[in-house]
Design goal:
With 418 residues, this protein is α+β, with helices and mostly antiparallel strands. The protein has a domain of 158 residues: Dna Ligase, domain 1. It has 15 helices and 14 strands. Helix 3 runs antiparallel to helix 5 and helix 10 packs antiparallel against helix 11. The longest helix has 18 residues. This is DNA polymerase V.
Amino acid sequence: MDYSEFQQHEVLCVDMRSFYASVECVKRDLDPMTALLAVVGDTKRPGSIVLAASPALKKKHGVSNVSRYFELPEDPEIVIAEAHMKDYLEVSVAITELVHEYVPMEAIHVYSVDEFWVTLDGTEKLHGTAEETAAKLQADILEQFGVTAAIGIGDNKFLAKVVMDIHAKKQASGIAVCRYQDVPRLLWPVPIQDIWGIGRRMQRNLNRMGIVTLGHLAHASMDHLKKRYGVMGEQLYWHAWGIDESEVLGDFVKQEQKSYGHGITLLRNYRGEEIPTIILELCEEACRRARRDKKEGNTVHLSIGYASPHGGGFSRSRSFTSPSNLTTDMYKLCLELFHEHYQKGHEIRRVSVSLTNLYNEEATQLSLFEDKSKQKDLSRAMDEIRSRFGTTAILRASSYTAAGMTIERSTKIGGHQA
């Protein structure tokens, strides 16, 4: 492979190891690398998931991020910490601000609350080589936040991410480098299921083709992969050779919104007659976000998941006569879909709604028969109150009933305690 025609950058992929657990350890003046600490989503629920475990807890007891609270061993040294998402977000933002001292904001691509890419092109005179900069950044994060970072260095985002996942996390230094010429040695022996972007279903499909390692994938026929998997097949082939042409500089913070949706897994099984309250609350949140971005949608989707032992559920959609971002409009269509497709007697555990086929608010035509300006003014007034004083500052009466979830959810971020 001649790599001279492909882009070559200095890219870091930084992962804050056991991030939630590390933040909780630091709050308690514990060493994140030696303390036995588990972060639990909700300590009031035995079945709640373990969101993070400290490295020492993983090593000693085999606790993983799919373990449940009740599965934790009875070890008096284990510290149980309830999740505080607000704290993790604050530390994540502060770390991003630290990185901004090294590079301009357009060189930072935040992937998740605990992982991001950094493009170092043109910073050599300021901070040294990519390896030197990675070591400095790693030391700064540890000194200022008590969090250990693993850092991959590559010629593009893919190489930086994969060498971080596969090699940096296993090395004492926590830093690993993979250039184009290193791909056969460092990446080809790796099983495909360990490669970022290859899920279980794709793994099974590739295994049936005799493709077990990344090296096998690199030497497969690109035409055959493309014919079988389309654009994804072509991308898999190029990734196997370490090639990734995705942008390394730009505004990665906000991308064009395709839909406004909201969903929830309920804390208990709900009866059919209780669900309209949940649907209304979800429509309220989806439409609030659409109004914030001055968008209106033409199509409403409703998905319902039944509880055991029935399982299953349904997902249906319906369109407005003209685009809208009013809660009452979306709620009306969702209720129609619910009453038409709900199987009576089935208890419900999952509900989600979304508003799609978006238009700019000013581009939509006013209905000849309806003047909704007063409804829009009222909705925006309610949005403003919630923005200034919190989501529970003004509520619909149904949210105060036993079926309402808004008050409970207002204390959480991402479904976990703030």
